[in-house]
Structure formats: C-alpha cells, structure tokens
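thought: user wants a sequence for this fold. calling inverse folding tool.
action: design(structure=
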C-alpha cells in the first residue's frame, strides 16, 4: 500500500512540476491557493478523510470497505477508487458542496 501511495505521489509531483513550470501565475492572489486548501481540507475532514503520511495534499478514506485516494493541487483533483458507485457518490458530494463541474474520466 505505501509503495503504491509513494508511486502515485511521485507521478503527481512530476505532472505538477511540469504544470507549475509552464503556468507559474495562473491563479491570481498568492493567498488563493492556501484559502482553497483550507476550504477543501474542511470538506475532507467532514468526510472523515485523513492525510497520507507527511503530505498535506493527499488524503484517503475507507467507505464500506473500499479505499478512496485523493490527490490535489490548488483546484485540480485526482480521485481514485476501485468501486465505481462509491467513487461516484463521493464525487457527487464534493461537487454539490462547492458547485463544481465534472470534467469526465482521466484517460492516458
């Protein structure tokens, strides 16, 4: 488990480093990212999520025996779960809480 979390973190970091290098100042005020992280963290705490290791932008939660992993960078999220109905219900609660939009499945 820890190896797969480390691998997910490493992949996300590589993607995020590339993104940050190409779009350094897309998000307006410097405090915006911190405010969003605080807001999102509050939602995830209500969902009984816990941070993964030392990383404060990765969370996990087990719902009905199914593990959900969530990684975030500013306002971009990757949510993974092997059980589609559990994942979909979690995603809908997240979108409803913040009037978000669903951009579809992540594909390679």
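)
observation: tool returned 108 residues.
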């Amino acid at each position: 488990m820890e190896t797969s979390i480390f691998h997910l973190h490493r992949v996300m970091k590589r993607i995020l480093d590339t993104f940050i290098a190409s779009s350094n100042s897309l998000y307006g005020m410097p405090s915006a990212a911190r405010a969003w992280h605080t807001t999102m963290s509050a939602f995830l705490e209500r969902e009984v999520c816990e941070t993964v290791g030392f990383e404060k932008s990765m969370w996990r939660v087990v719902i009905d025996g199914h593990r959900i992993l969530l990684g975030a960078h500013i306002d971009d999220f990757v949510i993974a779960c092997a059980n589609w109905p559990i994942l979909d219900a979690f995603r809908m609660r997240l979108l409803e809480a913040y009037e978000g939009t669903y951009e579809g499945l992540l594909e390679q």
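thought: summarizing for user.
answer: Here is the designed sequence. The two ends are 23 Å apart (CA to CA).
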